[in-house]
Amino acid sequence: MRMRTLVTASLVGLSLVATQASAGAAAGDPLIDKQWGLQQLHALEAWAGSTGAGQTIAVVDTGLDLGHPEFSGKLVPGATFSCGGAPGPCGNGDWTGTDGVGQESDVHGTHVAGIAAAAAGNGAGIAGVAPDAKIMPIKALENGSGTFEEIGAGVRYAADHGANVINLSLGAQPGIQVLTLLGLQAATKEAIAYAREKGVVVVASAGNETAPLCDTPSWEVGALCVAATDADEMHAVYSNLGVKLNLRAVSAPGGSSLGDCDADVWSSVPRGMGRPECGQADYDALAGTSMAAPQVAGVAALLGAQGRDAAGIEDALISTARTPIAGLRGVYNPAYGYGVVDAAAAVASQG
């Protein structure tokens, strides 16, 4: 059965002033002062203990601009599974796909990958959460959509080719989730289970429908569901709740979708595809749970670089996550899941 699934991303500008970043990091990454998400995650503090070296994050998405300076020296071989119905792989994960033409909606994968693991201190743009992790580009979506089979094939490829973390910033169209719940569609579900059996952490976006449940595939047992917060650490108005049967859910910065560019999540986009209103040719500010998931994937890579296994990584993410205002850690609630991921606390925790 071939079902179309849509990437869960909002392209609306947001508003809020970024928290002050360290002077040294800002000098090497001109846009880091706009990356309030790094501050919310306490990522800069975490880098004293881990930068993700030795880890590979597979971004199963719309493909990447493989020549973007944020990915120089950081890419491992990837693959394309958006093959127009032909057997895959049929390419190397480049965002332009088999026809060589980049679609506007396909800037998404480059943005997601930059959030997770863009280079730091390279004199350009931004810094990723895990700046020394490698990136595996997997194109399973074309023009913003793909099939369960294509996504499942991308997940399996990543698991078989050395990925330590898989990011899925995508979700099924409203109403299609029932097919997975009833067992009528299992390609992606089975692929996630396969990856987990191989010791890979799978992180997936909760969805942008303001719904009470995590979308498919973040609903699946083997995936960690990630809801979105805004720059004030409030549950984002568009974000689905972090609710699933096994309660494996957390939150991370995704933006508010209510204001100007600087409260969105800044990251890389294919060169020349930045929107004029945000003023950068090779970078842009987007919002959605699609932007929240790679923040967590990056922290997972920081933890993996410390020698933790998949179960240990998830346990550290969950037990150290914090609930804003209440100040609780590792305590579940429907809005935040177990809380906003805290990279510094997770890296400092006992594995």
Automatic annotation (TrEMBL):
Domain named Peptidase S8/S53: residues: 52-339
UniProt signal peptide: 1-23
One of the protein's GO biological processes: proteolysis
Alphabetical UniProt keywords: Hydrolase, Protease, Serine protease, Signal
Molecular functions per Gene Ontology: serine-type endopeptidase activity
Residue numbers annotated as active site: D61 (charge relay system), H108 (charge relay system), S290 (charge relay system)
Tagged with keyword tRNA-binding: no
InterPro entries listed in its UniProt record: Peptidase_S8/S53_dom, Peptidase_S8/S53_dom_sf, Peptidase_S8/S53_subtilisin, Peptidase_S8_Asp-AS, Peptidase_S8_His-AS, Peptidase_S8_Ser-AS, Peptidase_S8_subtilisin-rel
Pfam families: Peptidase_S8 (PF00082)
Alphabetical list of Gene3D superfamilies matching this protein: Peptidase S8/S53 domain (3.40.50.200)
Family to which the UniProt record says this protein belongs: Belongs to the peptidase S8 family.
Name of the protein: Peptidase S8
Source species: Saccharopolyspora karakumensis
Lineage of the organism: Bacteria, Bacillati, Actinomycetota, Actinomycetes, Pseudonocardiales
